[in-house]
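Researcher: Last one for today. Full complex below.
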Amino acid sequence: DDDIAEHDEL
Amino acid sequence: MNIFRLAGDMTHLFSVLVLLLKIHTIKSCAGISLKTQELYALVFATRYLDIFTDYISLYNTCMKLIFLGSSFSIVWYIRRHKIVRRSYDKEQDTFRHHFLILPCIILALLINEKFTVKEVMWTFSLYLEAVAILPQLVLLQRTRNIDNLTGQYIFLLGAYRSLYILNWIYRYFTEQHYVHWITWISGLVQTLLYADFFYYYFHSWKNNEKLQLPA
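Model: Here's the assembly. Have a good evening.
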């Protein structure tokens, strides 16, 4: 699966 | 960014500012659990490791700095400030929060999205945040009386995570591949922990009486 989307939430 | 997440972040920001303002103005931390505040400082320290490596947005970086600064200031006030520290009743605030940290570390090592240092630390911070309020809720049960600022602080903390759940639902339906089970489950557990507090908070507000938690 694609690289884990970086965590854009606080 | 969606309205639920923005409202959640503002509610979260407001909760820490309410607490910091309370401690700073009346120079007292009566009713506040230092253990919960230390856990929150640890949550932010382990979650915002990427503040210097990954730039997401000015908003994201500013909020991270504010949360880090406010949570560590609150811990400093309760531990070091010569007046505030006197109002901290350590006999009542006895929840062994180390028993929360270890299981969260183990769980983060076992259940995570990717086995990298940053990802495990981030997952640890999620699990820890879910249980960080426990020492504070136990302290409230013990001291039984809740001054309204502390009540508002806990209410806002619970409300922020509830808004985040709406944000996750919104993002699930509007974004492809937006699936983060770990975040969702720990966020749900966190909100459920507040459920009984919300129940008593709402009833005290409706009957316009002082908030009393059952023994």
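The radius of gyration of chain A is 8 Å. The interface with chain B takes residues 2, 4-10 of chain A (CB under 8 Å).
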